[in-house]
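Long-time lurker, finally posting.

We've been working with Elongation factor 4 (Kocuria salsicia) and I want a structural starting point before designing mutants. I don't trust myself to interpret raw outputs, so I'm hoping someone here can both generate the structure tokens and explain anything notable. Sequence follows.
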Amino acid sequence: MSPLAVNPPAPASTDPSVIRNFCIIAHIDHGKSTLADRMLQATGVVTPRQMKAQYLDRMDIERERGITIKSQAVRMPWNVDGTDYALNMIDTPGHVDFTYEVSRSLAACEATILLVDAAQGIEAQTLANLYLALENDLTIIPVLNKIDLPAAQPEKYAAELANLIGVEPEDVLKVSGKTGEGVEELLDRIVRDVPAPQGKKDAPSRAMIFDSVYDTYRGVVTYVRVVDGTLVPRERIQMMSTGATHELLEIGVISPEPIPSKGLSVGEVGYLITGVKDVRQSRVGDTVTNQQKPAEDSLGGYEDPKPMVFSGLFPVEGSDYPVLRDALEKLQLNDAALVYEPETSTALGFGFRCGFLGLLHLEITRDRLEREFNLDLISTAPSVSYNVTLEDHSEVEVTNPSEFPEGRILEIREPMVSATILVPSEFIGAVMELSQSKRGEMKGMDYLSEDRVELRYRLPLAEIVFDFFDQLKSKTRGYASLDWKADGEQAADLVKVDILLQGEQVDAFSAITHKDKAYSYGVLMTGKLQKLIPRQQYEVPIQAAIGSRIIARENIRAIRKDVLSKCYGGDISRKRKLLEKQKEGKKRMKMVGRVEVPQEAFVAALSSDEDNGKDKKK
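Top reply, 14 upvotes:
Generated this for you. Predicted structure of Elongation factor 4:
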């Protein structure tokens, strides 16, 4: 991120009455980034020569996958009836795993554009994001996108959308992000309907940090929304939660590249650079104020995100551990939903136990660490956290099967989620059957229209983090959409399945699973390890056990050396003597020998890619 010398400095500050702050929310792949591209062109902040698809998606991984991972803020000028307005837009992700990004963007805005695909209608994530916007008391502008598609049904879905938010169907704007049709009318509507930001210009300055990135040359770059007062370059600022003070080296707006300005005032969205290299000193949700005249109360920050899925990340080369630690620190600045703590594995060495909001979040994080920091990583199969109550009524949180207590257990509680599934009515039976097979409990069913149904289920998180979404898509020919959120805990009949090699427990392969599925996990793992572990000089049993009870077994056959090859003749007793001698040697070897499991076998059996190849496409 570098300021452009060719850009003239922005004005000192803008009158709050001409500022409009809004964001775009929608289900994944409903055209948010494409609509944002057309807005950038319509307002002239990006010239045709500079324009490229998904302009605000800065990461390679976003372009390759065609999804938005990071919220991006941009300032656009727009003239209505001779008055120049400043529109601050935040483009947000659509996938359920990045809901935390969306919640932070909503807190920095007064309004949101609720975007719905005119060919697909309302989807589960649309509803989830709409409820988030209503909780934040935002003005909602309903918009139908992709009206140029042959399969579009704008009238049908306009009525559905109007019914959902309580407006008339004619109030729903119809646009095409691809052709640009209706975009200018949408910008006019934003100016007319979105309220101007409220704040006290003469009060002590308060600005909320809604995002941060790390720049190798300039240190931490902080994105803020000013609520009260004014921030100007070269003043000393203070972070209200940590008390850290810094000199404000540069302040400015993003339009869509950073442009230094003479200050930011009430309602404005921009960036601050203090030259700080320590990533822990700029926390998302913190309040920035002036050091000489600090504000008394900080702004209400954000709820800390609760990790839902846990996985171990280990460097393939042990010497890369410090690099991985620094990489996670820098990535956490850019992704506040990521949590991690050091972990040691007998098989994989030193690494980190990381908490994610979902499987896509895990996959994207691992991909970013490998690309941006040039690391080779192994990720262990995802798991969730359990609360275990022991006989003495003490409680233990278990995020890793190796932490599972050995003593007598009164109760094990697993995290639950409430899931919303939107599906064409013809697939209701298939979805119900799938949800019940995953230990789901039905909570309700509503018809949104004649042919679209909303199903609500309460499910164990452990059942949906692996292949639930893939199975849902395949059973509904890709039409179903899923959204879920945490919904407390529930006691369950869970057991720890241990894998034993020649009677010795191998911690890395243990898993916590439901009693009914323990046998299938044991058979799967023993079968996989039988193929992966090289044959020894003696027979090696691979066993799956619950406590002291063996539930599955496979044998790795011994490599048999031909001791009779040098015996050309003679009677059978001579050959038998050699075979007996070999048998004794193998028995002795089996008593003292240890089975060495090669690194490749650990990687193949533990890594989420290999263990569940179908997860990769999620």
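Before you design anything, note these points.
The two ends are 31 Å apart (CA to CA).
Residues 1-12, 607-618 have pLDDT under 50 and may be disordered.
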